């Protein structure tokens, strides 16, 4: 049986199940403004409101001015930047380890998870190479 997208979309709309994008009148965060109304955004991943924090935004802008907005290639190919080295040194100290790079930043997703979990939740765990959890 051939599926007809137009018919399927019409059926979803008739059942009140058709999702549409609704523009915001404010930056995304724990609270947003849409159609002139301030709303709580319970679907936000910005639990702490850091996405709109002026101090954090200023630090990002300063970092972009000093180091650029992205990498040209892998740090192994093009070299590493001082903020990466400082973060790795800080994390190694927190883990009582000689280095943090290999274990902590094995993949891009692990980089994000490792650096954001301690910010979100002080009981978040990191693990060393043996898989033992560290507090």
Topology:
Blueprint: H1 5-14, E1 31-34, E2 37-40, H2 54-67, H3 75-78, H4 82-94, H5 101-104, H6 108-120, E3 126-127, E4 133-134
Antiparallel strand pairs: 1-2, 3-4
Estimate the helix proportion, in percent. Answer: 40-55%
Estimate the strand proportion: 5-15%
Q: What average pLDDT do the residues reach?
A: 79
Structural class by SSE content: mainly alpha
Q: Briefly, what is this?
A:
This protein has 135 residues and is mainly α. The protein is built from 6 helices and 4 strands. The model is unreliable at 121-129 (pLDDT under 50).
Structural features, described:
The chain has 135 residues and is mostly helical. The chain has two domains: 21-69, no CATH class; 76-130, no CATH class. It is built from six helices and four strands, in the order H-E-E-H-H-H-H-H-E-E. It has helices spanning 5-14, 54-67, 75-78, 82-94, 101-104, 108-120; strands spanning 31-34, 37-40, 126-127, 133-134. Strand 1 (31-34) and strand 2 (37-40) form a beta hairpin. It is elongated.
Could you list some keywords that capture this structure?
135 residues, mainly alpha, two-stranded antiparallel sheet, two-stranded antiparallel ribbon, 4 strands, 9% strand
């Amino acid at each position: 049986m051939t599926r007809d997208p137009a018919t399927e979309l019409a059926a979803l709309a008739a059942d009140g199940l058709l999702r549409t994008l609704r523009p915001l009148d404010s930056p995304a965060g724990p609270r947003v403004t849409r159609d002139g109304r301030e709303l709580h955004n319970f679907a936000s991943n910005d639990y702490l409101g850091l996405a709109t924090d002026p101090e954090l935004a200023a630090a990002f802008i300063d970092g972009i001015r000093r180091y650029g907005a992205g990498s040209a290639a892998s740090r192994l190919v093009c070299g590493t930047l001082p903020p990466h080295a400082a973060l790795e040194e800080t994390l190694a100290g927190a883990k009582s380890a000689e280095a943090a790079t290999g274990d902590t930043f094995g993949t891009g997703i692990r980089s994000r998870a490792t650096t954001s979990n301690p910010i979100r939740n002080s009981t978040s765990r990191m693990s060393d190479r043996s898989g033992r959890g560290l507090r």
